[in-house]
Amino acid sequence: xxxxxxxxxxxxxxxxxxxxxxxxxxxxxxxxxxxxxxxxxxxxxxxxxxxxxxxxxxxxxxxxxxxxxxxxxxxxxxxxxxxxxxxxxxxxxxxxxxxxxxxxxxxxxxxxxxxxxxxxxxxxxxxxxxxxxxxxxxxxxxxxxxxxxxxxxxxxxxxxxxxxxxxxxxxxxxxxxxxxxxxxxxxxxxxxxxxxxxxxxxxxxxxxxxxxxxxxxxxxxxxxxxxxxxxxxxxxxxxxxxxxxxxxxxxxxxxxxxxxxxxxxxxxxxxxxxxxxxxxxxxxxxxxxxxxxxxxxxxxxxxxxxxxxxxxxxxxxxxxxxxxxxxxxxxxxxxxxxxxxxxxxxxxxxxxxxxxxxxxxxxxxxxxxxxxxxxxxxxxxxxxxxxxxxxxxxxxxxxxxxxxxxxxxxxxxxxxxxxxxxxxxxxxxxxxxxxxxxxxxxxxxxxxxxxxxxxxxxxxxxxxxxxxxxxxxxxxxxxxxxxxxxxxxxxxxxxxxxxxxxxxxxxxxxxxxxxxxxxxxxxxxxxxxxxxxxxxxxxxxxxxxxxxxxxxxxxxxxxxxxxxxxxxxxxxxxxxxxxxxxxxxxxxxxxxxxxxxxxxxxxxxxxxxxxxxxxxxxxxxxxxxxxxxxxxxxxxxxxxxxxxxxxxxxxxxxxxxxxxxxxxxxxxxxxxxxxxxxxxxxxxxxxxxxxxxxxxxxxxxxxxxxxxxxxxxxxxxxxxxxxxxxxxxxxxxxxxxxxxxxxxxxxxxxxxxxxxxxxxxxxxxxxxxxxxxxxxxxxxxxxxxxxxxxxxxxxxxxxxxxx
Length: 803
What we know:
The structure is a single chain. Strands 1-2-8-9-10-11-18-15-14-13 form a ten-stranded antiparallel β-sheet. The protein is about 25% helix and about 25% strand. Among the domains are: about 290 residues, Beta-galactosidase, Chain A, domain 5 (Distorted Sandwich); about 80 residues, Sandwich (Maltose phosphorylase, domain 3), CATH 2.60.420.10. Helix 6 crosses helix 7 and helix 13 packs parallel to helix 15.
């Protein structure tokens, strides 16, 4: 069954069936104020920390037909009583004649037809705004006049969202609602909750006269609280009760009498849901967004922001689904993931357990550098503040307090309290920023190292370059029996938790990639001594990996604390792990013959028609010495599931070896835009990447979960643009090095780089995958494959001939 279609011209996905297999969402606003809206108008909003400043209640585990956070009722008056329905389908579940949910760039627009009434609702948060706007337009399509009422409803949660679920006595005592009367029948329904002596006010209002309101859920539903959201008893009364709740389950319901609409008549009502420290501080914005012209202007500004952001890189390839992702949905997801980290989604519920991950956000930053480099730099700077003096990094941080912690390692007393890979990702992120911008001054900026006990230990500051140097030195001093980096609590694969003394082949390769970056940077800076030193480190680790880790047809993944191999042909389960193969190529450690064999093993043992599995075969029961990976059934998540984050690394590795056909096949296997016709199997949104898909060892092979907030977004974008299309920034200019399918005749890219625009036309007359024999810049042939740094010009035409 199909649930919608892509509208590339409007840069939207249009959902035409609200009963999607799981909730499909879209993000509005930012973490400063915002959240997500689902395909039936339900919403979860917060201001700042989603754990400690939640606004409305959205519980994803409830059935899809249940009310979640926010909805809209329409009431048709008549001699025999009222007909009540929701234009969002949920929660009244009426039969609809038309349903469209337009998933746009920073907005959701729901258009529906029920009972001859057309409703169009645009939901968004203005740029830098602190309120959610719902712009509601209602049209009578009936031939006869209709009397209509409009009742928007929200349900509040306590600011401390977790307490809403854990303290059913304390929380209700702290919540109160009050009404503020204004001129011409307008009202502001305010809701207060008290927590840790902090005072915040949520407000709910509109630009239309409000005849009555309700703030108590029990009274709104009726029947002593046993009424339902599907059919609230209070809506059968002419007016709501005007009750100001003094405790309990606070809601906001606003009664709007629209009067009699003649055939074709249209009415517009604009609601606002926001939060402020004091209501007086919000009055200016409340009055502003009651004006339809201001709302139109705010929506236009939001759309212009996204147009500007996406225009920084535009591709045109022979693959329409690839174009759709690279021009719209993939860079958009990169920005959302950079902004929200792993804080708030249908799967990360924002109860404070995750915060911002050091490794996660370093990779997220890399995904937006071509579109918003300075925002990427700001995120990198934040992360550098929680790098320890010894060069390692804290695993998670709260960006509001800048307090950091060691992540899940806190929960296992017999395991090390650091992750072996975290600190190395920042080397890749900083170097990627430098190549994008050429801002070498950033390396000299001083940033403090993190210390938990700052009163006893004064802050130590270091330049960004010093932070990078210490990251390298920490790993070099933290080696195990085979000369490989110690695993710590875990590496990128959080679920393999081995006792102290275990070594990580992945971290060895990530260390190698970081050393290549440091060597290149030192050479560019003219520091030959440091360049030689890091090259020496690189050669040492390369030798250790190849001496100890080659298993005949692939590289092993770990040595455990006893020196036994994991990810080896010697193992019964978990014989092969994908990241040891892809990263041995990315690092450059694998000699060509081994690189080829390792990637052949990936294709033979780990590839499926729906993506590449993380490992194989899956473990079939809990093994405490290995940790979390064995808590999943075979084929799920890290235990042999298709963990999408690791797929682009194989794409990059294949492209580095010149295998364009194979790299492109791996790209298309997990392109969500190609899942639109198999959604009943796949289930997740077809307009963003999920984190994981169940592998072929699982009975539900092909089922996706954990969409939106995944490092998959950043790496799929990088793998496609930098390695398949081969447009890569460098210190010296823009590299043109494509690796494409042999049947592509070429492609074009418009790329903003260093304050200039490059219109790049790649031609493939010989039908090859890799190799560029000529490049013309504004009609003049240049040497090599690097377009030099712009010198005063603003627009450059580039023609690259493969051969």
